[in-house]
């Protein structure tokens, strides 16, 4: 049985200078990480002679790119699939991710309607078809509101599955757990509709107020969030989720922590890797 590769997004690898970032990335690779979802920002936006050299540098330290990216539905609609496909081909990956769907913005106090969700789903299906024709699988990254927002008796998540058959999922098991789901069962239920994973953990006992700068300026920016923590410290059944990933053939797991609790970024990544490694299922 081949083992899962550990990957990461955010948390660390964001040094103040290119030199500091590369030094931090080398440290992370030496921990045992084999990939990163930060690759697009590193390769295309980090200073250096050109993106090809940045990609070679990233690969030389042992970190492979995971995906190309679109920030949200508005970004994907505006840019269209073509530049995302181009970035995927440059990075040598066959997956792309949209990180924030319409339901997410309920968190900032926006009223999300059925028509808005269905319009986004139609756009996603069209983009997914266009990407699939070019060898790229478009994936949708969830938060909690996809599981807690209902229209006509269906969650937004199930609407995405039902009405966008060419769309795949990047399942964030931390947010799914926060929404009340037992993540290992959800992983097995979704099966091959999942192409990518986010693992994150949170302390039980209620949400905390946190300011998130990514939303529309007109929305409330400080609101209830899970009290995120390193893997194995909170509510997520980490090893059971890894076993479920093996069952459906997932070969890369991305760890993420939206904000620090006590540990700093490198400490979080070290703990996350060791907790997953202890399962015997991760390289």
CATH class identity:
Alpha Beta
List how many beta strands DSSP finds.
Answer: 13
- Report the major sheet: 9 strands, parallel
Which stretches are poorly predicted, pLDDT < 50 over at least 5 residues? none
> What structural category do the secondary elements indicate?
alpha/beta
Strand order in the largest sheet: 3-2-1-13-10-9-6-5-4
**In the CATH hierarchy, what is the superfamily?**
Divalent-metal-dependent TIM barrel enzymes
CATH-defined architecture: Alpha-Beta Barrel
Instruction: Summarize the amount of helix as a percent range.
Output: 40-55%
Q: Note the run of SSEs as H and E.
A: EHEHHEEHHEHEHEEHEHHEEEHEH
The N- to C-terminal Cα distance equals: 11 Å
Radius of gyration equals 18 Å
CATH topology: TIM Barrel
Our estimate of the beta-strand percent is 15-25%
Count of discrete structural domains: 1
How much is the average pLDDT?
A: 95
Global morphology: globular
Can you count the helices?
Answer: 12
Written description of the protein model:
This protein has 283 residues and is of the alpha/beta class. The protein has a single domain (5-218, 229-277), classed as Divalent-metal-dependent TIM barrel enzymes (TIM Barrel, Alpha-Beta Barrel). It contains 12 helices and 13 strands. The chain has helices at 18-31, 39-45, 51-60, 73-79, 81-91, 114-133, 145-148, 156-163, 173-178, 183-190, 238-248, 265-277; strands at 5-8, 35-36, 64-65, 68-72, 95-100, 137-141, 150-151, 154-155, 168-172, 194-199, 201-211, 222-229, 252-255. The chain has a 9-stranded parallel sheet with strand order 3-2-1-13-10-9-6-5-4. It has a two-stranded antiparallel sheet with strand order 7-8. The longest helix has 20 residues, at 114-133. The radius of gyration is 18 Å and the shape is globular. The relative contact order is 0.15. The mean pLDDT is 95.
